[in-house]
Structure formats: C-alpha cells, structure tokens
Amino acid sequence: MVNTVESLVDDWSGQLRPGQREIAQWRGGLLAVSAVPGAGKSHGMAVGAAIAIARQRLNQQQQLVVVTYSRSAAASIKVRIRHYLNQMGLPRTGFSVQTLHSLALKIAMGAPNWRGSAENLLSEYEQQRLCRRCVDQWARSHPDQMQHLIQGMDTQPPIHSEQLTRRHALISSILTSFTKTVVTSARSAFLTPAELRQLSHHPAIAADPYPFLEIAADLLELYQHQLYEREQIDYDEMILAAVQCLDANASYRQEWQQRVYAVFEDEAQDSTPLQSRLLRLLATDVMDDRIVNVVRVGDPNQAINSTFTAADPLFFNAFCDECAQQNAFYTMTQAGRCTPLVIKAANYLVEWANHTYAQTEPPFRPQDIQPVPPGDPQPDANPPAWGQGVELVYPKTIFETAHELAVRIARVFEAHPKATVAILVRQNKQGHFLADLLRSPADFGLNHNLPSLGITIFDVAGVERRSHVPEELFHILQFLYCPYSPDRVKNALTVLVERGVVPPQNLDRLAAQPEVFLYPGPLDPPATAEAVQAQHFCHGLLQARLQLSLFPLIAYCAQRLGYDAAELATTDRLIYYLSQSQEPQLWERLAPIWQGIVAENTFEPVDMEDLHSRYVRPAQVTILTMHKAKGLDWDAVFVPFLQAKNLPGDLWVPANARFLGEVDFIAVTRAQIRAHSHGQPIPNYQEAWRNAAAAKTAEEYRLLYVAITRAKRLLWLAAAQQAPFWPSFDWHHHYELQPQAPCPFLPALQQQLAKWLSPIRGDR
Ligand SMILES: Nc1ncnc2c1ncn2[C@@H]1O[C@H](COP(=O)(O)OP(=O)(O)OP(=O)(O)O)[C@@H](O)[C@H]1O
Hints:
Number of strands: 16
Enzyme class: isomerase
CATH superfamily of the largest domain: P-loop containing nucleotide triphosphate hydrolases
CATH class of the largest domain: Alpha Beta
Domain UvrD-like helicase ATP-binding: 14-339
Region (Disordered): 360-383
Bound molecules: adenosine-5'-triphosphate
Number of domains: 4
Largest sheet: 6 strands, parallel
GO cellular component, one term: cytosol
Helix content: 40-55%
CATH topology of the largest domain: Rossmann fold
C-alpha cells in the first residue's frame, strides 16, 4: 500500500508544478502557498489532500478536513479529491469537504451542554429583525444620544416633522444596518462589548462628532443578550461558539483533534482571524500541541470579501510570513489558464492600479503572472487567443452593450460550438437585466437571438436566488393546477426550457393562448415542431396530475425535469417539509406555504455535488457576478458595464443619512474596528472614511482582476457610454440613461493594447 502510494506520488509529482509538488510532499506541520490566478492552487490542494489521505490511511475515524468558503468551491474540490482517491483504489471516507460555517455548526451542535440547535440558527431575515429590536430598545433607553443624532450637523434642533423623519431613518435603517456591521466586525475581531467600550474612549476619536463606537458597544451587548435569551445563534456566533466550545471543554476538543488529522484551507486570503483560530484548534495534534497540521493556499490579490466581511488578506500574509520562517512557504507565479494577452492585461492592471493608488491603499501585492514553460503538465496551457484575445468596446448604451455582446457571443459559438462562455457582472440586477435581454431580444428591439441558436442563457443569480428546486417545481405545479393561465404557462415553460427538456422557442407566443398551445383545434395554425414537443411534454405532466396525489406528483415532476441525485434529494426534503406543515395536504393549502419558501429563499437545498458543472457548460452562456466567478474559468469571458460609477464606484452617504454629515458612519466605524484588529492606531472619523474609500477602491480592482483572470482565450470588456446613473437602480424600471465615464483602467489598457497588438507602432 505504502509503495503504491509512493510510486503514485512519484508519478504525479512529475505532473505537478513547483508549489503543487510541495503540497504533495507535505508530511505535517504548517504550509502556505501563495499563488497567482490559474497557477493550480485548487488542483495542487486536491492532489495533495488525496496523497495525505493515502499516506496516513485516513478513514471515517480520522479525517482530513478541507475547508472552502463557498458551496460551489466545496463541490468542485470534493469531486477532484475523489477522482484521485479512485485512482489509488481508496475509499472516499478519509476526508470531508466543508464550508467553514457548516463545520462550525457541526462542532457547536455536538458540544455537550451547547444551548443552540440548527432550528435556532437565525436566518438573515431574522437577524435583521433582531438588529432592529436592539435598536428600538437602545433608542428608548438613550433619549439624549438619540436627540444628539437627530440634530445631526445642524446647530439648532430641526423642526418637528424633520425630527420625526430623522428618527425613523435612524431606527429603521441607519442604526439597524450599523448594528449588523458592528456585530460582524467586532465579533470577528474577538472584541467584547466591554473592549469596544474601552476603545470608544480612545483620545484619537475624542473629537469625532458622534460616539458611534460607544453606541456600537451598547448595541453589541444588547444583541448578544437577546441571542442568549432566545437561545438563538447567528452565523458569526456559530464560529465563535465552535471556538468557545473547543476552548472550554478539553475532552471535547481532544475528541475533535483526534478526528481531524489536518486541515487544508483553500482561498485562505478570505479567512478571518476567528476562522483561522478555529482551524488551528482543530488541526492541533492531540498528543502534542506544538504540532499543528495546517495547509493554506490563497492569493492576496484575489481578496474580494474584505469590505463586507471581517476577512482581510493581511491575515493570510501574516501566516505566510510565519511559514516562511519555518521554510514552509512557497509561491507559484506561473499559470497555464489564460492566453498570453489576457495575462498581460491582468499584470498591467496590477501595475497600473498600484501606481495610480500608491498614495492611498495599493490594491495588489506586486506580483506578475507568468505563462508556464514548455512541457508543463497542463494540456493546452496558455492556449492561443480567440479573436484579438483581449477586446475592448464602448457601446453607446447598456442596450447596445447587450446587442454587441450577443453578436460577439454568437460569433464565438459559430467558430467554437463547444465553447464555454460567461458574462460577469458587478451586481445581480445587471445580470437579470442582461438575461432578459438575451432571452427575449425581440422585446427590446434586438435582432440577435442566442436561444434560437440553441444557446442556453443561464442566469446563476436568478436560479440561486430562487433556490431553484422549490421554485422550479412550484412553477410546474402551479401550471398543473391552473393550466389556462398565460403567466403560469410561461413560467412552467421557462423552467422546462432552462432544464433542457423542451427546446428553446418563443414562449410568449405559446403562453398567450394556453388552450391553443395545449389543445389546438382544426382551425388553429399548425404548430412548429418545437411547440409540439413542448405540448407533448405538458400533456404528460397534466396526465400525471389526474392520476397522482400531490406528493407523488411532485416527485414525478422532479423526475421529468431530469433532476440529478442532489436535486432529487432536495425534492424529497421539500416534500417532507411540506408534509409537516399543513393538514390536509391539498394544493390549495400548501401553495401559500410553498410560495413563502420561494419568496424567502430559506429552503436549504441538499448539497449540490456538481453545482460547479452547471456554471461551466458548453453551449451555455453563464451570467454571474464577479464574486461568484472566483475559482472558475471559461474559454470566453465577457465583462460588460465597466463604467466608472459601477467599478470602482464610490463610497457614498445614503440620502436619508446625510443629516449626520458627509461621511457614512457605518463605514467609518467598521474602518476603526478594522484598524484596531490590524494592530494599527485607531483613526479619527475623517481618516477612517478615507481609509474605507481606499479599501473599497482597492477591492473593486481586485474584483476586476478576478474577472479578467477567468478568461482562457478571449476577454471582452465593455463600458457603456450611457447607463443608469446609479448602478444599484433597478435596471428594469429605470431606463433613464446618463453619460458615463469608463472605469479609468480601460483607457489605460486600451493604450497598452494598441502597443501590444502592433509591435512596430509600440516599438516606436
Ligand atoms: N499540474 C497540473 N496539471 C494539469 N492541469 C493543471 C495543473 N495545475 C493546474 N492545472 C489546471 O489549470 C487550471 C487552473 O487550476 P486551478 O483552478 O487549480 O487554479 P487556481 O490557482 O486555483 O486558480 P484561481 O486562483 O484563479 O481560482 C485548471 O483547469 C487545472 O486543472
């Protein structure tokens, strides 16, 4: 067995890059790998994990725990590790892949005397309500401070009606969001209410116009008290609870340490100190606490969560320094994913942004991506470009952007029918807007129709937001119980087309006259072949509706939609949930409950093993946010709407909070807590505001860097000359377009492109 493993390790080592090889050769202790995008971090980690599992003969009793930050990343790494274990003929039991939160939940729930339970886990919505309750309570018990806030920057108290308006804004929105921010930042930085209060007396902030840190301490205290009283926990608390359970109970800690041989962490740049502490505790050897088996891989240049969570690349950098002192730190600068021109564009972004923002917060660690040398193990490494490789356009409007995009995508599929393609947007709303335009171009006067070419438009946010299994089945069932409603026919057909069980076609035409679509008479015009297919499919479902009772009918529909195992398991969970909710189990009774599940998106799907593969599929255009695109890649990547207002955008003060002054005190307080947790001097409010703005800009450019480095062969960037003024407006209902400047990186890149693409001119 050992020999087989070692000979396979030798074989595989020949297929690994430096950095990956070190992970494969790891035999315990700390190890850090910092690598550029596409260098093969996740790949190296999967191979390394499989080898460690084989070497240590890990099993159900003692496992290697792989931690990631998103479900899709977890699914993709699980598949890779299983692949290598299969090659070694080993069972799949020696490891588990988890998101950090599910791991923490397991630890906290298993602890003796732990007061919480999964049912007590606060949803986002409930957390919001709890924050609001704390604010109400605080406002009642602090009338003087409330009055001080209501007066804002005015020298005199405002008139009565204005006071009421401000009070309402403070309670319902400003202080409620403030509470949420404080709760997350302070607890991640291990700050107790008492410590926060102490911090609020710091002389550096004595002249700040409002005592927001003191208010933060009050609100944090109230929030924690309320959680305790209600025996509830929230996501952050779960991690804190897990750490506390392990800290407080030696035998429980040892139980876990015995169970966990090592922790491998992907995307480690997104880790918070609290999370790192949890992982270290778990990975400490049960017999000797000087031995800590932790492997962390990450890329500080891809840190894109630090402005809305307590994550910060600084912590991963510190870990890298610690490992460097033990000669256990490696960097990987070669990457085979992208065509050379895309690499040049990404490197230029690093150089340009660090130069442009040298005075504030340089966004990147200066580090160039290099193409891999000849003979690299990756097949088709640094592939040749499609088209120009990097293309940059300035369409007149957001509509023209959609049109140009469709034209270019159609050309990609014409030349490469099996291409994988993604459109990356900054905000979900932009994604929905594009999805609608691309799905129904005629409605918007566009004459390029991707669905008619057999190309699926897959709007990730749309699907995920709706938690697709409950929503898809809901639409089908709604149709089956009311087949003559045009809306329901359209919704059901949309699901059927998205699932690929009915061919794409003009659904509005079918839905407009449901009886003609379902049961055409002799005088009706002949249906197209696609419509007949859709009709037969619907007849099958309607037939089942007459023969089956509700729950078997739901299961039948799930089968007909071609659900995979995880989706079928999710359907089972849904049926179970519905069966527990209401008697008698009739559609009319259950429909409102089901609709609630869809609206609140609270239903937890069964872990989707191949969620990842849904994002990257041939003959599909995947629309998703830049954040969600992390860790994935496609042949062609389109990044529209790169107007300056959209990226990097600005920090701004919401209109209802302007009476407090020219800065957003939520961002200010967060920046003050951030500085403290980094061991830096605490900044006053003006400096904290500048820091917050610089941190946002820096992170936006890292986000653009992530987007750019997803492209293997073609990167298409666009900035519309006219777009909605506020990127956050609902693009469906706000068509008032205004002139917009492009993201300042684009003109700079354009100049470079001109040089790179015409070497003679460039040389001059
Ligand atoms: N040694 C290797 N042999 C073959 N293919 C490899 C190797 N290393 C990486 N690859 C391939 O290169 C691509 C990028 O690898 P991977 O996704 O692991 O990179 P990454 O560093 O995690 O990227 P990012 O940080 O941008 O998400 C993948 O398609 C992967 O299969």
